[in-house]
Amino acid sequence: MTLDSAVVAAGLVFLFVLGAILGSFANVVIARVPEGRSVVTPRSACPCCNTPITPRDNVPIVSWLILRGRCRHCREPISARYPIVEAATGALFTATGGWALATDQLGLLPLLLVWCVVGVALTVIDLDHHRLPNPITMPMLLVTPLGLTLAALIDGVPDSSTSGWAGAGMGAVIWLGVIGVLWAITGGRGMGLGDVKLAPSLGATLGWLGVGSAAIGLLAAFVIGALVAVVLLVARRVGRRSAVPFGPFLFVGAALAVIAGEPLAEGYLGLFSLAA
């Protein structure tokens, strides 16, 4: 399907704005869900003076820049994390939309956009609290098959025994099996239960693209996690017994797998065929 460049550009701009708006909601989730508070009520307020934030001061990215990072009422600084989360989510939406257009995977786009918001929120929460809360991970067990069903209705089921529904099932089993076993044999010290609950949803999403993508995503998460851990150890930012949140690496690995999982898997298998 060929689209006019102006239409594509407008669509990508729309995705950035939508992502920034949902990134603002992700900020609410990040602040409230770990504390067990509602993400609906009460209205967002300044964390210092508790003055409710008016709509003009709640425009993603823009309001923070206009106010120079300070509350309009008490003039206390407001963390730069808020616009960073909004901008990051907007950028992820734009990049994901561009990928969907380039690969003709528009049916999968809604589910991937949900994962962008969930991934940003869970990454920050895991870095802050070293856990992946059930109110975010558990709904994805339902959202993921619904999103894959939508992809099947719009794009059709991939014509391969290692992708589509078969790939999604195998991807879920691979991710849940590996992460679940690691959680069990380490007694929860090497892997959190939240990672286990997240695994089948992420694995199924990648498996829809291909079992190779699911395998590459999981492998990449462990490789990147190990490299970062070594760097932190060398820099003496953590000790040998320090807990390092693994959720962010799962999302980085998944993102890499979406972009290049199948080519990397095929290239890896090609090395064995050459050797044979």
Structural class: mainly alpha
Q: What would you report as the Rg, rounded to the nearest angstrom?
A: 20 Å
Please describe the biggest sheet, giving its number of strands, its sense, and whether it closes into a barrel. Answer: none
Number of helices: 10
**Number of discrete domains:** 2
Shape: globular
Instruction: Count the E strands.
Output: 0
What is the straight-line distance between the termini?
40 Å
Q: What is the N-to-C order of secondary-structure elements (H for helix, E for strand)? A: HHHHHHHHHH
Q: How much helix is in the residues?
A: 55-70%
Mean pLDDT: 91
Provide the low-confidence segments as ranges. none
Strand fraction equals: under 5%
Structure description:
The chain folds into two domains: 1-104, no CATH class; 133-276, no CATH class. 68% of the residues lie in helices and 0% in strands. The chain has ten helices and no strands. Helix 7 packs parallel to helix 9 (211-234). It starts with a helix and ends with a helix. The mean pLDDT is 91.
